[in-house]
Design goal:
By secondary structure, this protein is of the alpha/beta class. It contains 10 helices and 5 strands, in the order H-H-H-H-E-E-E-H-E-H-H-E-H-H-H. The chain has helices at residues 9-22, 29-40, 44-58, 66-75, 154-168, 183-186, 188-197, 213-230, 236-252, 264-275; strands at 115-125, 128-137, 142-149, 176-179, 200-203. A 5-stranded mixed β-sheet has the order 3-2-1-4-5, with helices on both faces. The protein is globular, with a radius of gyration of 21 Å. The chain starts with 8 loop residues before the first helix and ends in an 8-residue tail after the last helix.
């Protein structure tokens, strides 16, 4: 089994923040950590370690803060390991044409990480709007990335992409990422991140909902099964937790007619077992 890479900073910060935001809703902090960790697919012990470090850094728990530890490392002539590759910098070129439509409304994929579709939506709150970003692997209809935000900015879509890249692990050679013509998906930062991962960008050519029908369908289910049923929403924190819970249910327990009435996670497991050659792993 391929070893999963370290969690992106965005996921760590998001999980820790949600523990502090929802701690009063559980009988103990450990219960909160266990609940949040399961929604991100991480161990409770991993999240507990991050929470303890955040408490030390904020002064809520005794110990050496992160800043103080880096200062001591410097004095001892030691340095931490730099995670990840250095990102390339580019200058925006308005003459570059819009990416081609590589999907042409044919939402099918023979294997995982061959075709992802991405979409954005909005949710009405008591004080304004919140926005959600989703990424779906067409192979199993699994939601591989999601994010909620108070603003419709590039980071919203980019955070969902980072989660998807971490969750699926790759390799991503041959992956087509399809979206509408939204500026978030055509931004330099977003397209560079896709290229860095080895994915190819695809954008609907006609500019209507049918060009990204699978993402539109997912968003419709999200609004019908969660947003409208449990709204109106007080704040982003309530919506964010509820969205994670819905995604977990959608991926692991919701039955899909397109998958022979199986949840996406079960469908992928079954397909993986069926493709293993007979006698594999035996002596």
């Amino acid at each position: 089994m391929t070893r999963r890479s370290r969690y992106p900073a965005e996921i760590r910060e998001r999980a820790v923040r949600m523990v502090f935001e929802h701690e009063r809703e559980h009988p103990s902090q450990w219960a909160t950590i266990t609940s949040i960790a399961s929604k991100f697919g991480m161990t409770a012990e991993t999240l507990r370690t991050w929470v303890r470090r955040a408490e030390v850094d904020s002064g809520a728990r005794p110990g050496l803060a992160t800043e103080e530890r880096e200062r001591l490392m410097w004095e001892l002539s030691r340095s931490g390991v730099v995670r990840g590759k250095v990102k390339r910098t580019t200058v925006a070129n308005e003459s570059v044409p819009r990416p081609a439509d590589l999907v042409e409304r044919d939402f099918q994929a023979p294997v995982p990480n061959r075709l992802w579709v991405a979409g954005l939506t909005y949710v009405r709150r008591w004080s304004g709007f919140a926005y959600g970003a989703f990424i779906i692997d067409v192979y199993s209809r699994s939601i591989v990335g999601c994010q909620a935000s108070r603003s419709l900015r590039t980071d919203l879509a980019l955070d969902a992409l980072e989660q998807a890249l971490w969750a699926r692990q790759g390799p991503f050679d041959g992956l087509v990422h399809h979206s509408d013509r939204g500026v978030q998906y055509l931004s330099i930062r977003y397209t560079e991140r896709l290229a860095e991962a080895g994915a190819v960008t695809s954008v609907g050519s006609r500019g209507d909902s049918y060009d990204n029908a699978l993402a539109e369908s997912l968003i419709g289910l999200y609004k019908t099964e969660l947003v409208h049923r449990r709204g109106p929403w007080r704040g982003l924190d309530d919506l964010e937790l509820a969205t994670l819970e819905w995604v977990d249910w959608y991926n692991h327990r919701r039955l899909h007619s397109a998958l022979d009435y199986r949840p996406p996670a079960e469908y992928e497991r079954n397909q993986e077992r069926e493709t293993v050659p007979a006698g594999a792993g035996t002596q």
